[in-house]
Design brief:
mainly beta, Jelly Rolls, five-stranded antiparallel sheet, 1 helix
Amino acid sequence: MHYLTRITVCLALAGALNATIPVRARAADNATSKGFFSFGPDQTIVDIGKVEWQPLKLEGLPPGIEIATLRGDLGKGGGEILLRVPANYTVPNHSHTSDELYVWLRGAFTYIAADGQQAEIDGPAYISLPGNTPHALKCHSEPCVFYVRYSRPFDLHLHAIPK
């Protein structure tokens, strides 16, 4: 019982000591990235309105999509990105080996499933797809912005558009 009491006292002292240490905001590791902040190890805070967008250049994708990498490395897996897709743009039918997690932040869109079924969604949405799931996306009359996380290394496989 004394052992548990000692652990409790040590934890209380550690907590009190930690509370006296001032917290300072500091820029993320990449100090040149606008809108990125970190307040400690492995933390990423992003002001999405201030990120610097870059053109996404992938074979088979028409130009126009922009990307902002939030954290991780798409080549190694665990990459987290933002994508901005122009109004009236259709992302071709495609799949990835990795599972995908989308959080749609802005813009109405149509999700097109592998069999051609479609779902129109007017705004924020959540999409979770297992790896190797063909799908296409069509943004409506305003640009779309969404977050995507890939757990495995990024790849892109294009497929014919379902009829």
